[in-house]
């Protein structure tokens, strides 16, 4: 699962940076991913030889198929949306759904390229991944389960405002108030999030230990579980969270100044330029 996380981070975050260092990171995505995953799995030389060409193929596919898709999404969905004075929650949800399609495409392809690892890991490597999960779960509990709900809401609001600051610049007092009101009214169920997390981890462990001829979860199922909850309750919770976020984005845009809107539009233009340099 860390494999997919690092790929997603590079492809959807670093990709949209505006400096040459980010382009170097994308161009060496295969090497960086192998380095990161090797820290947790301690691959043998044979396993590295097995995975290295798969990661190169993933990067080639992403450059040829996904970068044009990102560009198309910006030009046909995001930029027309940003020209509007009012953006409804429904319109934000459509954009969010389009972004999810791109995540799903990457998850499926990454799973296919990582499939040679299925059944090829030794018991000590699986145990190392299990130990890594246990360590990260301790951090998760301290951050998301142990604090009082009011503190969790405040931290979520702060994280959202930090993200928006990169888009719009500093938020106004009215926008800050809107963020806090939205997060005070949200349903936050970190216990459900925790339960989904544990199920996903077990899916990954089972998929990695499954022999090709054996029944059981495949890596594609495990990778896609990162994007969609495995339970119906979790799916309903995610949909509600997306609606809350879309409503907040709509309100932030309504309250935004001409300067803020222009900054967001210019950022979209810079993303297009950066993607074209990578294609």
Characterization of this structure:
The protein has 279 residues and is mainly alpha-helical. Helix content is 80%, strand content 0%.
Give the topology, please.
Blueprint: H1 2-12, H2 20-27, H3 29-41, H4 45-82, H5 89-114, H6 123-145, H7 149-168, H8 173-185, H9 190-209, H10 219-224, H11 232-254, H12 258-278
Helix pairs in contact: 1-3, 1-5, 3-4, 4-5, 4-12, 5-11, 6-9, 7-8, 8-11
What is the structural class?
A: mainly alpha
Mean pLDDT over the full residue set: 82
- Percent of sequence in beta strands: under 5%
Tell the overall outline. globular
Could you tell me the radius of gyration in angstroms?
20 Å
The total count of strands amounts to 0
Order of helices and strands: HHHHHHHHHHHH
Terminal CA distance: 27 Å
- Count of discrete alpha- or pi-helical segments spanning 4 or more residues: 12
Biggest β-sheet: count, sense, barrel? none
As residue ranges, the low-confidence spans are 1-22
- Helicity, as a percent range: over 70%
Features:
mainly alpha, disordered N terminus, single chain, 12 helices, 279 residues
Please provide a brief summary of the model:
This protein is an all-alpha fold. It contains twelve helices and no strands.
